[in-house]
Amino acid sequence: MTAPTVALPQLSLTDLDPAANEAAIRERTAALPESVDIAIFPEYALTGFVADSRAYSGALTSERATDILSSVAAENDIDILAGYLEQAGDTLYNTSAYVRPDGDTTSYRKRHLWGDEATVVTPGDELVTVETPVGKTGLLTCYDLNFVADSAAMTDERVDALFVIGAWPAAHSDNWRLLCRARALDGVRWVVGAGRTGTGGTDRTGVAQREYAGRSMVVRPDGVVAAALNRDERDLVWTLDPEILAEQREFVGSVD
Q1: What domains appear along the chain, each with residue ranges and CATH number?
Q2: Residue 252 needs a FRET pair 20 to 30 A away by CA distance; which of 49, 122, 130, 242 works?
Q3: What share of the chain is helix, strand, coil (3-state, %, to 5)?
Q4: Whole-model pTM above 0.90?
């Protein structure tokens, strides 16, 4: 198996402005090295989010969001994972889409909503896996990391990686790092976490209510952080060596 390369373009988003966020995603993807197989963008990367009725003004249908991401994937011959606020009729979901250059798409709706997000967004009801260049991969979003039962279910699915998109509050950034490491270790798999940076969640007067952690990272199957960013808008590019996963699984399997 070849060693796939992932890129985490860490972004500061514009809430409720899909056009601005689309432009940023296109620009950042086009600037990535040709060696990159998968680009992973944060939670709500296409739309941003605010936790009140204004959210509808920035939401996208699944068709529109996947059309955008499919064109980015095709133009750059790269797989894309990105989050967006999905509108389905009168219902809003926190959705991520994994899109290949040929347009094939796998979507996941966040199952565990955090804080006031639950006043606007409806939770999904299915765990989702997808075949990626890394192998069988589970998709999670932000607060989903806290739920050990979901991690155990992904372990039963024998996934080789978890791709986690987040908009983690800066005040709790140590928990983001801890949980990414735990989810790698308890399932003996890669965890690739793409975090939003900057500020957002503006109230109706235009004041930002939240500072985001950034801290995108790649965690090895032994729980060691292989590479990480702080809060800058930078790209983390890392190659996931399949021999590291095989060695760690052999090691753990040899322990009674």
Answers
A1: 5-253 (3.60.110.10)
A2: 130
A3: 30, 30, 40
A4: yes
